[in-house]
Amino acid sequence: VSAPVKVEVVAVPQVLLTDDFTGAAFDQTKWQLDSTPFDNGTATAESALTLANGQVKIDVTAESASWPGFALFTAKTYTAAPTAPVTFEIDRVLLDYVLVTGTGARQRAGIWIKDAAGNFVFFSDNAAWDGNNFGWRYNKVTGQADDNPTDAGVNIAALDPSQFNDQKNHRMKMVANGSTVKLYVDDVLGAEVAFPFSQGLTFGFGAYVQQATNVVRGYFDNAKISGGSAPTPPKLTATVA
Fold it and tell me: Which residues contact 81 (CB under 8 A, 6 or more apart)?
């Protein structure tokens, strides 16, 4: 071999967390329960987040409006960078509901990214039964004039087709790189949202219901977080004279 030997090192993301929720209770080394409402409502005492049939079941009845619910957030924090983004994905298995007060009831089930200062993006399936067509939307707080922490959310036109809006099993995913968060359903890119935060990031998933006495039941499974980089064995390319 007379020419130089070229060594190529290829980095791939590491798997940082996985959970298929097969236990009797959620793993507190991985998740923390958050009963903060999406707006300011309260849930009944019977409302609960449990594990059933290998899935997380979030069963919430609103005692008072608006938007009480539960979420699980990661117990650890994560760092995102342009060359080492962090990806959170989970199956939203089912968005179920009971319309106690009629068609005015509304429910949401979705996923979160937050930082320690309270900035967030909430990506959710916003279900309504009163003629409104909400579907997949996002809410955010990033310190900008267009923040929308508790409204109906920004519509994601790419996810309007009917195959995404049956309230059934869909793989939700968000990819954070320290400047934006990309939002996907079933590997279809829905939106890219400015999120210029890279440190102390937590991810979560939850379900919420709007009006008093109405019910939301959100089911989730197969959570995964990947990020950083883990070098694979080098590939050697040699040129022979």
Answer: 177, 178, 198
Q: CA 182, CA 169: separation in Å to the nearest integer?
A: 20
Judge whether 72 and 204 are in contact, CB under 8 Å: yes
Distances from the Cα of 141 to the Cα of 135, 205, 209, angstroms: 20, 17, 20
Pairwise CA distance, residues 174 & 210, whole Å: 25
Degrees to nearest 5, angle at CA 120 with 181 and 31: 95
Give 120-168 pLDDT, tens digit per residue: 999 999 998 777 879 999 999 999 999 999 999 999 999 999 999 999 9
Residue type at position 21: F
Longest dimension (CA), the chain: 81
DSSP state of 162: G
Cβ 104 vs Cβ 83: under 8 Å: no
